[in-house]
Design brief:
This protein is an alpha+beta fold. It has three domains: 6-297, no CATH class; 306-420, no CATH class; 429-487, Orthogonal Bundle (Arc Repressor Mutant, subunit A), CATH 1.10.10. The chain is built from 16 helices and 17 strands. It has helices at 6-9, 62-74, 172-189, 229-248, 294-302, 308-318, 323-331, 333-343, 349-367, 378-389, 395-408, 414-420, 429-442, 444-451, 457-468, 475-487; strands at residues 12-23, 78-79, 82-83, 86-89, 99-102, 109-110, 113-117, 123-135, 139-141, 150-152, 159-165, 201-211, 221-226, 257-261, 266-271, 282-283, 290-291. Strands 1, 2, 6, 7, 8, 11, 12, 13, 14 and 15 form a ten-stranded mixed beta sheet that branches. Strands 5-4-16 form a three-stranded antiparallel beta sheet, with no helix packed on it. A hairpin with a 5-residue loop joins strand 7 and strand 8 (123-135). The longest helix is centred in the middle third of the chain and has 20 residues, at 229-248. It starts with 5 loop residues before the first helix and ends with a helix. The structure holds adenosine-5'-diphosphate and magnesium ion. Adenosine-5'-diphosphate (ADP) is lined by residues 15-19, 164-167, 206-208, 217-218, 220. Adenosine-5'-diphosphate binds at residues 15-19, 164-167, 206-208, 217-218, 220.
C-alpha cells in the first residue's frame, strides 16, 4: 500500500470504538457445572448442557454475575437491577446448540467510563456504552488434522463479559491505553487473568475516519479477534491509512468485518455487510430475568479491592511520588500490593519506590522471577531502608552488598545481617579521621591544589576514603570532617 502524506492524513480524524471480551475466572461455566478451566484434554470439560442436548436447562452461575457487577462498578457503570438474557441465533460448528445465550436490550451494566492516561500527560475519560454477560463458544481447530477440522467444546459455555465502548477513541494510543486499563482492572478485581495471548482477553476494534470538523461519523469497519494490545494499535494505524486512501481516491468505505494479519500488518475482508448475519435475537425462554437488589450491589461495592487509579492518586497526591513512579508501581497489581505493604512499614515512601523500582526490579529481571515469588518480605526491606535513613549503612553498600545478601538470607533482618557482615558505618570519629589522614597523606599535591581553591579534589579524597573504609562511613559527616582537616593544613 502506498503510504499517505502527512498533509492528507492531517485532514482526517480517526474514530475508534472497542468491544472487549473478558473470560471470567470462575471455576465452572456460566450455565452448567462443567469446569471453566483453560486447557484440559479436548472435550473433557463438557456435559449435555455445553453440547446443547435437547431438554437441558441452563442455570446461571452466581459468581459470574458477581464478577460482572464488580467490573461494572470499577468502570463507573450503572448496575441494571433487572436484566435479561437473549438468544443470538447462528449456526457454527463450535456452537452445537445453534444459539449463544447473551444479553441484548437489557445488559447487566449501563453507561460508565474508564480514565486513561496519555504520554503527553493528559487524561481522558472513555465512555462505556454497556457491559453484558454471555457464554463463550467452543473452538474449531483447522490445523491439527490433514483433512478434517477438529472441534473442542471445553470453552463452550465459559462465562464472558463484553465491554462495549462508545466511539470515543481518537488515536491508536488511546485505544492501547484503554485496553491496558481494562486489563489492569480485571486483574486488580481478580475476575479475569487478562491474558491476551491465551485469549482470556480479546478485542474487536471498530474503526472509521471522517474529515476533521465533521459531525457525523464515517462508515466503520470492524477488525475481529485481535490478540495483543500492539496488534490492536497496528490494525488501527493500518485502517486509518487504508480508509483515507480509499476516500481520497473517490471511493467509499463499506461496513465490513475484517481480519488482521499480524505478519503483514494488513487487514482483509472476512465478511461484507451483505453477508452479515441476522441473529434474530429473542428473549431466552429458559432463563428468568435476573433481578438484583440494591443491597446486593452495595455489598459488592463495599468489598471492592483498591483500584489502580485510587492508588495512583494516593501516591501522587499524598505520598508525593512522581507520576512516572506512580504509573510504574500501579501498572501491576502484585507490585502495587508489595508497595502497599512496604509503605505500611516505612514512612520513607520515596525510598520505598526507589528500592522497588531499582534493586528489587533488577533482581527480579535478572533472576527471571516475579514479585509474588520474591522472598524478601516488605518488613525486611523496610528495615533496610530504616538502616540507611538512620545513617547506619550507606546507600551504596546497602544496595550493592547488603541487599543481595539479604535476598539470599531472607529470614534475617537488615540490621542483624549488616552487623554480621561488618557493613555498619563506624560511628567512631577516630576511625573516620584515620581514613581521612591516610587519604591526605596519599595525595599531598592534591592538598595543595585544594588550598589553591580547586574544591573539586574533594571528590577524589572522598572516593579514596570510601574505598579504604569499604563504604562504612557516613558520607556527610566524613565530608565535613575532611573539609575541616584540609582547611587546617
Ligand atoms: P452494532 O449494534 O452493529 O454492534 P454498535 O452501535 O453496538 O453496533 O457499535 C459497536 C461498536 O462500534 C461500539 O464499540 C461503537 O462504539 C463502535 N462504533 C459505532 N459506530 C462507529 C463508528 N462510526 N466508528 C467507529 N466505531 C464505531
Ligand atoms: Mg456489536
Amino acid at each position: 500500500m502506498t503510504s499517505i502524506t502527512a498533509g492528507i492524513s492531517d485532514k482526517y480524524e480517526l474514530v475508534v470504538g472497542l468491544e472487549v471480551h473478558a473470560q471470567l475466572s470462575t471455576l465452572s461455566k456460566i450455565f452448567s457445572s462443567d469446569s471453566a478451566a483453560f486447557g484440559g484434554g479436548p472435550n473433557e470439560h463438557i456435559s449435555a448442557i455445553s453440547l446443547g442436548h435437547p431438554g437441558t436447562l441452563p442455570r446461571l452461575n452466581k459468581k459470574a454475575v458477581e464478577y460482572a457487577v464488580k467490573m461494572g462498578l470499577a468502570c463507573n457503570c450503572t448496575i441494571n437491577l433487572r436484566n435479561t438474557f437473549a438468544r443470538k441465533n447462528y449456526f457454527y460448528a463450535d456452537l452445537p446448540k445453534g444459539y449463544q445465550i447473551t444479553q441484548d436490550h437489557m445488559p447487566i451494566c449501563l453507561g460508565g467510563s474508564v480514565l486513561v492516561r496519555l504520554t503527553d500527560g493528559s487524561t481522558k475519560n472513555i465512555a462505556i456504552h454497556h457491559i453484558h454477560l454471555e457464554e463463550d463458544a467452543g473452538k474449531s481447530m483447522h490445523d491439527q488434522h490433514h483433512a478434517d477440522s477438529l472441534i473442542d467444546l471445553n470453552r463452550a459455555g465459559v462465562p464472558l463479559i463484553e465491554i462495549v465502548t462508545e466511539p470515543d477513541m481518537r488515536s491508536a494510543e488511546e485505544a492501547g491505553q484503554f485496553l491496558t486499563e481494562i486489563r489492569k482492572l480485571v486483574r486488580y478485581l481478580d475476575v479475569c487473568d487478562g491474558n491476551m495471548e491465551e485469549g482470556s482477553l480479546r478485542c474487536d476494534a471498530n474503526i472509521s475516519v471522517r474529515l476533521k470538523g465533521a459531525t457525523a461519523y464515517g462508515n466503520r469497519c470492524e477488525v475481529k479477534n485481535l490478540n495483543s494490545i500492539r496488534n490492536v494499535q497496528r490494525a488501527i494505524e493500518h485502517e486509518f491509512e487504508r480508509q483515507i486512501n480509499v476516500i481520497e481516491a473517490g471511493g467509499h468505505i463499506d461496513q465490513n468485518t475484517l481480519n488482521f494479519n499480524a505478519d503483514t500488518g494488513e487487514t482483509s475482508v472476512l465478511r461484507s455487510k451483505e453477508m452479515a448475519n441476522d441473529y434474530r435475537y429473542f428473549p431466552e425462554p429458559d432463563l428468568t430475568p435476573l433481578a438484583l437488589t440494591k443491597e446486593y450491589v452495595n455489598t459488592i461495592q463495599s468489598a471492592m479491592p483498591v483500584l489502580p487509579n485510587a492508588l495512583y492518586d494516593k501516591y501522587t497526591d499524598q505520598l508525593g511520588l512522581s507520576e512516572y513512579d506512580a504509573g510504574v508501581i500501579t501498572a501491576d497489581k502484585d507490585v502495587a500490593l508489595y508497595f502497599e505493604a512496604l509503605i505500611a512499614n516505612t514512612e520513607n515512601s520515596k525510598a520505598a519506590a526507589n528500592w522497588l523500582m531499582g534493586s528489587v526490579k533488577s533482581y527480579l529481571n535478572d533472576s527471571n522471577t516475579s514479585i509474588t515469588d520474591f522472598k524478601l518480605k516488605p518488613e525486611t526491606l523496610a528495615g533496610l531502608i530504616k538502616l540507611v535513613d538512620s545513617g547506619k549503612v550507606n546507600n551504596t553498600v546497602a544496595s550493592q552488598k547488603l541487599f543481595p545478601e539479604l535476598v539470599k538470607n531472607s529470614d534475617k533482618t537488615a540490621a542483624g545481617l549488616a552487623a554480621e557482615l561488618n557493613l555498619l558505618i563506624t560511628s567512631d570519629n577516630n576511625d573516620v579521621s584515620r581514613f581521612i589522614q591516610d587519604a591526605i597523606a596519599k595525595y599531598p599535591d592534591k592538598v595543595i591544589e585544594y588550598q589553591k581553591g580547586k574544591k573539586g579534589v574533594l571528590g577524589l579524597f572522598m572516593g579514596e576514603i570510601m574505598k579504604s573504609s569499604k563504604g562504612k562511613i557516613d558520607p556527610q559527616k566524613t565530608n565535613q570532617l575532611l573539609i575541616k582537616e584540609l582547611e587546617s593544613k
